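Sorry to interrupt, but I need a hand with the structure work. Go ahead and set the record down below:
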Amino acid sequence: MPYKEEWHLGSSGRMEEKAIMKISILIPCYNEEENARAICEAVKDMLKKELPDYDYEILFIDNKSTDNTRGIIRELCREDPKVKAIFNIKNFGQFNSPYYGLTQSDGDCTIPLCADFQDPIELIPEMVHKWEEGHKVVCMIKSRSRENKLIYFFRSIYYWLVHKMGNVKQIKQFTGFGLYDRSFIDILRKLDDPTPFYRGIVAEYAPDHLEIEYEQQKRRAGKSSNNFMTLFDAAMLSLTSYTKGILRVATFGGFIMAIISLIVAMVYLVMKLTRWYDFPVGQAPMVIGVYFIGSVQLFFLGFLGEYVMSINQRVIDRPLVIEEERINFTDGI
C-alpha cells in the first residue's frame, strides 16, 4: 500500500482509522560518496520538520559507482528501513536509471532529487502543498543558475531550439526536478520505451503541469560526471525523440540548394555558349560548390545517422536497467 494506517480519537469519541499519505524521494547516484549521507540526512530532517504528517521513503538508485557511494548507501539502509536502494549492474546512463527509479517508487507522489544539492530540498514542502491543492505534476524551472554562465547560455539556446523545432512543446530549463503524482508514475510504468527522455515525456503526457521557478545551486561537493559526450547524448536523444525539424530543414534545404545549383549551372552554360573565348570557366566556383554542398550533405547525414541509431536502440528493446541488488524492499514494488 502507498500509505500506512494509524488510529486516532475521532470527534465521536471512538478510535478511527486514518490513512497517512506517503512521499517518495528518489536520489539517483553516480560517484556521490561525498554527498550521499549528507543529502539523505538533510532530506529526512526536512521531512520530519516541515511535513510531519506524511510517511516517506528515500530511494537511492546507484548507476555502478566506482567510489564508496554504495558502501555509504548500505550503511544508510541498515540504519533506517525507510531508506531503500537499487544497485545497477552497470552504468545505464543519465536517463534510464532515474526513469527506472521513478517506476520503482512506492509513494503517493515521487520527487526526484539530485544527490549534489543542486536541487534545493527546501522547495519540497512548496511542491507538496501544490500537490495537495490538486496539481498532479509540478515542474521546477531554472530561472537562474549558479553554474558556469557559458554553459547556462548554451543550455538556454538548446532548450529554445528543441522547443521551437519539436512536435511536442518542451519545457524550457526543466531538468526533471519536480513532483509527480502516483497516477503519472503509473503512466511511466506503462510506457514501453527502452531509451526514455522523461523530460519530454512530462511535456507530452502532463500538459497541465504547474511550473515553479527556482535558482539552481552549485554542487555541494565532488565533481559532476557530466561531460561533453553525456550532454551531447542528452541533446541528441531529445532531438531524435521529439523533433522533426532537422529532417525538414534537410529536405527543404536540399531542395533550395538544388534549385540554386541548377540556376548557377544554366547561367554558366549560357555565358560560356555566348562568349566562348571571352569567358573561361575557372576551377574556383566548381571547388567551392563541391565543398559547400559536400559539407552540407555530411552534416545532415550525421543527423540522419542519429535518428537511425535512435531507431536501432528502440528496435533492439533492451531493458531500462538490470539490477544487481536491491535493499529494504518488501513484496511488490
About this structure: The radius of gyration is 26 Å. The longest helix spans residues 284-316. The chain has a mean pLDDT of 79.
